[in-house]
Amino acid sequence: MAAYPMPQAGRPPPGTLASVAHREGVAGPSGRVGDRTTRLRRPGRSERSRMDREQALATFRDCVAEVLDIEPSEVVLTARWREDLDADSLAVVEITLALNDAFSFKFPEVDPEQIKTVGQAFDLVCGLLGV
C-alpha cells in the first residue's frame, strides 16, 4: 500500500483530482468535485450582465469608426452608409464581422440594400441584444 502524505485538516491528499479542485476553488463543502454545490452551469440570459443602449451605441460606433477609419463622432444614427460614410460593400462585410466579434453574436443575413442608415443597423443590433 502506497503511503500518501497526511492531508491537512479540511484538505484532500495532494496529487489527487480533489486536491486540484480544492486548490482551484471548485470543490464544494464536502471537498468532493462532484458536490452538488460545485456544478458549473452556464448563466441564463436573464443572469448575464446586460448592456444598456448607450453602451451598445458606443461599442457600435467604435466598430464602425475603426473599419471606416473615421472618428466615432462621425458615426451618427442619421448617417447613410454609402452617401455619408462612403462605406462600400466590402466595408459593410467588415463592419458586420466587427459587430459579430464585439457583441458576441452572429449577425443575421440581411440584404444590405434594406439597411440604408446607421440607425437602421443599430436598431437591428439592439433587437439582437434585447436592449
TrEMBL record:
4'-phosphopantetheine is transferred from CoA to a specific serine of apo-ACP by AcpS. This modification is essential for activity because fatty acids are bound in thioester linkage to the sulfhydryl of the prosthetic group. InterPro entries: ACP, ACP-like_sf, PP-bd_ACP. Its main location: cytoplasm. The keyword Protein transport does not apply. Pathway: Lipid metabolism; fatty acid biosynthesis. It is found in: Cytoplasm. Gene3D superfamilies: ACP-like. Coiled coil: none annotated. The keyword Lipid biosynthesis applies. The modification O-(pantetheine 4'-phosphoryl)serine is found at S89. Residues 33-53 have a biased composition (Basic and acidic residues). Residues 54-129 form the Carrier domain. It comes from the Bacteria. Residues 1-53 are annotated as: Disordered. Keywords: Cytoplasm, Fatty acid biosynthesis, Fatty acid metabolism, Lipid biosynthesis, Lipid metabolism, Phosphopantetheine, Phosphoprotein. Belongs to the acyl carrier protein (ACP) family. HAMAP family: Acyl_carrier. Carrier of the growing fatty acid chain in fatty acid biosynthesis. PANTHER family: ACYL CARRIER PROTEIN (PTHR20863), CARRIER DOMAIN-CONTAINING PROTEIN (PTHR20863:SF76). This is Acyl carrier protein. It comes from Acidiferrimicrobium australe. The gene is acpP.
